[in-house]
């Protein structure tokens, strides 16, 4: 027989002959790939259940040697920096679409028993969502995208599992019925067919082979670096994957490029990934050399290589790098995980939080090391007490004090507001630190109105602006409004923030959301990235941090924006003004109709048994039971508010974009 054994830990897809011979692994990086099928063109598709805290489940186009991002060694949640669910990590491949919960089988339909538009569709059984789903495929580069369409929706005791097509084209599917896994004897088998016989017609087989398949076959024959460069630089992850596999088969080309590394970081990533596939004898030496690269993504992949292979020879290099100043949170966490792996330690969130926390409390840690560790530890980590944070506030290092204030902004202890108020009132402190403290007070809502009012009517302008932001949307008495108006009417930079608090128009004439050129022109002018960060994290204004994370702060509902500044300004502006123009499958919102007639829209962020938790367009969670969901369809719009900019002044918008662009 044949055995396969290496780092493919977690879900895998294998191939063998009909008699069980010639076993090989086709692809890895799955959580639990229940169902696999082929279409008539030979394309392989799979459905993959989601990790504990990383919905949605996935519909995947499976290719030879593909890595789909999940490794169990880095935890069940699917949120470790070394895990990828939609191709976020270099070298991993994305999903075609998110599916319903508990997908158990996938079938490529080519029968004559269903209407012609079903030809080439993928049918998927969703155990937990009580339905059989239908996906229409369309070409997308070297792969596909998939659109979910209605097919069969059942009630609370309909839990489809297996799926098969009969010779007459009708569909059979098994039904487990109950939510438990006991052998209860209540299962059923159903058959789906048209009520009336369909007219005989010439059925045209849809051409589902991507246009680039011939191009991909040509990549397999490339033999020089010059030929490989353009495909390694491709925007298509499936093309890059093919190019890396080909490069790994050309050791002489690979070695030559290692001796004279190219300037383009995309090409260096390709070389690193190809070396990983080739299992060179000097693996540890190569991994350590990549740790010294100038590109953070290359360094991150080097840390993952060390962690995956447990390259213990690299431990001194990892320890040294952990003490470098200005590491990104992602790279810092990656290095921490690599250190744990080469030290045979657990890399779970609790264990890693303890490791980072010790670096905070270590008297020998530099301010830079403490800053990095503070960003890596959740603010609700139990040993992270107010007493400890207040002690750290006495540091002479301004950067460390700023980071402590940012921890206080997210800390669960209500006593933090007293500390933040004292910081805001300390006239001897830097104004930026005091403004950060006011940002933290704003999350207290109406209870902070009195304190914020005091800062809004006297003192430096930067604090007045921040206090006015915190007062937006709060209930103030006529006397308080009059006091605000009288104190700030003569200051031009306070005119728009004041008008917002007073309930007056402050937006002025602005271009249409689709007029990107007009907005780019309007946004020209002086901007303050530090002020823009406070707009980003402000709970009463943009509220970006309710869904997005930067440098370990905020929430991970939407994409991490720590390096969003690498995106060109035009794309940034379009993403904010037209958030629904391009939404990755991982972030598809759902329009959910419940049995009581309500309709809600949200992004699915967690599933537990029959309870689904969504985040709405205000960043607020809501939970529904699957038995109460009458219908669930992909929403046309993102949950990111379409008119987010309407609540911000022009200066706040300029500052916000300056902050986003600063995130390199």
Summarize the structure.
With 664 residues, the chain is an alpha+beta fold. Among the domains are: 11-192, 6 Propeller (Neuraminidase), CATH 2.120.10.30; 212-261 and 268-273, no CATH class; 516-579 and 642-662, Cytochrome Bc1 Complex, Chain D, domain 2, CATH 1.10.760; 585-634, SH3 type barrels, CATH 2.30.30.
Descriptive terms for the model:
Cytochrome Bc1 Complex, Chain D, domain 2, 4-stranded antiparallel beta sheet, 18% strand, globular, 5-stranded antiparallel beta sheet, 23 helices, 36% helix, single chain
Please provide a written account of the structure.
- With 664 residues, the protein is an alpha+beta fold.
- Among the domains are: 11-192, TolB, C-terminal domain (Neuraminidase, 6 Propeller), CATH 2.120.10.30; 212-261 and 268-273, no CATH class; 516-579 and 642-662, Cytochrome c-like domain (Cytochrome Bc1 Complex, Chain D, domain 2, Orthogonal Bundle), CATH 1.10.760.10; 585-634, SH3 type barrels.
- Strands 20-19-18-17-21 form a five-stranded antiparallel β-sheet, with no helix packed on it. A four-stranded antiparallel β-sheet has the order 3-4-5-7, with no helix packed on it.
- Strand 1 and strand 2 form a beta hairpin.
- Helix 4 (251-259) packs across helix 5 and helix 10 packs antiparallel against helix 11 (367-376).
- 41% of the residues are buried.
| CATH top level class name of the domain at 11-192 | Mainly Beta
Termini separation comes to 51 Å
The overall strand count is 21
Radius of gyration: 28 Å
Beta percentage is 15-25%
Give the strand order of the largest sheet, numbering strands 1, 2, ... along the chain.
20-19-18-17-21
- CATH homologous superfamily placement of the domain at 11-192: TolB, C-terminal domain
The average pLDDT score comes to 92
CATH third-level topology of the domain at 11-192: Neuraminidase
- Number of helical segments? 23
Return residue spans where pLDDT drops below 50 for at least 5 consecutive residues: none
Q: Largest sheet, if any?
A: 5 strands, antiparallel
Structural class: alpha+beta
